[in-house]
Amino acid sequence: MTRYSEEKAMVLESSLWLSRNGYFGTHRGTGGNVSLRLGESSMAITPSSTEYEGLTPEDILVVDFAIAIIEGKTGLKPSVESILHSTIYRNRPDCNAVVHSHQPWGSALALINTPVPALFDEVSLALGPLIDIIPYGLSGSPELAANTATKLSNNANAYIIQNHGILALGKTMHQALLNAELLEKVAHAYCLALSTGKAVTTLPQSVADMFASLRHNDVKEASVTGKGGA
Ligand SMILES: [Zn+2]
Question: Per the residue annotation, which of 81, 122, 184, 221 is the catalytic one?
Fold first, then answer.
């Protein structure tokens, strides 16, 4: 048992759920990673290049935002995307959990560089009225983290990474998982709608503006109250 046993178990359970439900693109691969903020400047995160089936909570690492290992088993390295996760926590005080995945329908939009406008009430309320595209950067590179940082100020809870996959953010791990699901749902519906060649209708601008304002207030409230640890 360590100080963060519960948080590590939550990160592992979430990764297994995503893997078993096809969110990592393959069932045997490691096409994604999950983290949970632990406080002002540390997070629990999945290990790099390790199949999630068979892991135990002790295999989840605790690192600071400069990716120095605080707790970790010998031989395991933190996820190659750790710097991407820490960049999100540094820039978004409202975010306490991050899912990065290679889920199929989100990945389809990542290939046609098509942001998702406000299409459904529940999706726009949870994710924001625009799911934007983060320009390509090599997996694990500082460039990808820097490209992500330029997009976070829109206060959305989901992003599509060009030619790569998606990011889902949440106040809690449950919300981050739900947001990954909502993104897959809207990406699936949007791809099908686009494939008909017919015009895709969007929500009225006044409704999109209302959802943008709610997301803005959420982030503002978190930065004022300094809500950190999950
Ligand atoms: Zn990836």
Answer: 81
Q: State the Cα–Cα distance between residues 125 and 122, nearest whole angstrom.
A: 5
Rounded to the nearest angstrom, the distance between the alpha carbon of 164 and the centre of ligand 1 is 6
Please check whether the domain covering 5-225 is classified as CATH 2.40.400.10: no
Give the Å distance between the CA of 60 and the centre of ligand 1. 18
CA of 225 to the centre of ligand 1 (A): 32
Mean pLDDT of 10-33: 88
- Asked about 81 being catalytic, the answer comes back as yes
Residue 69 has pLDDT above 50, yes or no: yes
Give percent above pLDDT 90 in the chain: 86
Residue 26 pLDDT: 77
Each domain of the chain, given as residue ranges in start order, spans 5-225
Residue 35 belongs to what H/E stretch? Answer: strand 32-37
pLDDT bracket for residue 50 (50, 70, 90) = confident
